[in-house]
Amino acid sequence: MSKNICFIDGLEGILKYREIDINQLVELPYDAVSYLLIQGELPGDQELAEYAACLHGEREVNREVIDVIRMCNFNIDSIEALRTIVSFISQFDPDINDSSPEGNMRKAIRLIAKIPTIVAAYFRIANGKQPVPPDPSLSHGANFLYMLRGNKPTQLEAEVMEKDFILSAEHELNASTFSSRVTASTLSDLYSAVVSGLCTLKGPLHGGARAEVVTMIEEIACPENAENYVLDKLSKKEKIMGFGHRVYKTYDPRGTIFKQLAKQLAEAKGDMHWYNTAEVVENTVIRELVEKKGKPIYPNVDFYSGVIYKYMDIPPQLATSIFAIGRVSGWIAHCFDQYEKKKIIRPRAFMLDEC
Ligand SMILES: CC(=O)SCCNC(=O)CCNC(=O)[C@H](O)C(C)(C)COP(=O)(O)OP(=O)(O)OC[C@H]1O[C@@H](n2cnc3c(N)ncnc32)[C@H](O)[C@@H]1OP(=O)(O)O
Ligand SMILES: O=C([O-])CC(=O)C(=O)O
């Protein structure tokens, strides 16, 4: 079963969730992709309506959660707060001690529904504003942007956010999913497994790279600076964030879709400057590393998603948390699979030599 959650062909650049190609998945609502990952098949109309109603009905967080967010340090990355709050809210979940498949499903819905609300409330409070209550009539993507900004996003922005969550939702045994699975393999609860995933996603070699891309694009500032910026980094043997992958040795198919979305946003906003800056970075990395050195270092999922955040006025401090909003469905799909196995994951130390 676990093999079917995700399929990656790293040489051909193919990605499928539950045997459906990512280029098809990206046209669906996030709720349908979340259902697909967790339940193993696409929902019918009635199933999707019911699942979406459950998710949209569980978006609110209680007063205590807002009080704890107010105590956070707003100078650090939002993933620090998210990790703490997800741990904090488990105590309010009526199913916390119910490890049946039904109890776990109810917890899953609450986690997927509430994480965007926590991230948006953190951002509002950090900026001296009141949190905006969720709007159950909006999609996952549109509602998140609405809670963040206090006004409805354009249709294009809502679609891009929805697609971002889908493209970020699942990627086989990446580091954070592995972490979540290990926690679930001890038969620990779903909140603990999701907190493990959050802690691991945070690192800059994994989901944290997205925040670094937003910062890098800001630092470069214009296309004219981009080539020298890359050459300088490479001459110091530093990595370019948002490039390279353990599995893909060609273009990451998610990166290609994100690039198209970034272009669409740039054109709609009549401002190509961030997109053009990113393209010079990409072309320089490809020329220097792929063409001259034969290293398969292409843009990964974090590169053009970071560029999209520039167009959506999303600061670097939110980037990893936004990745987590999408990824939580993938973590949960893997945890459910692991719970069914009832087998502890316990590799031997010598296996680390192969990592
Ligand atoms: C959601 C995700 O997790 S996607 C990945 C997000 N992470 C990043 O974008 C961070 C930058 N990228 C990287 O650090 C790496 O490419 C990783 C962590 C993604 C993959 O790591 P690995 O498969 O272990 O590759 P490793 O780091 O050993 O690199 C292999 C070679 O390519 C080079 N390389 C890899 N990535 C980059 C990069 N982004 N920029 C420049 N050179 C790179 C390394 O310097 C190394 O060169 P060498 O053989 O001459 O020493
Ligand atoms: O698969 C990986 O190692 C990293 C990655 O792209 C992801 O988690 O989306």
Automatic annotation (TrEMBL):
Keywords: Acyltransferase, Transferase. The active site is at H245, D302. GO terms for molecular function: citrate synthase activity. This is Citrate synthase. The keyword Hydrolase does not apply. InterPro entries: Citrate_synth-like_lrg_a-sub (IPR016142), Citrate_synth-like_sm_a-sub (IPR016143), Citrate_synthase (IPR002020), Citrate_synthase_AS (IPR019810), Citrate_synthase_bac-typ (IPR024176), Citrate_synthase_sf (IPR036969). GO terms for biological process: carbohydrate metabolic process; tricarboxylic acid cycle.
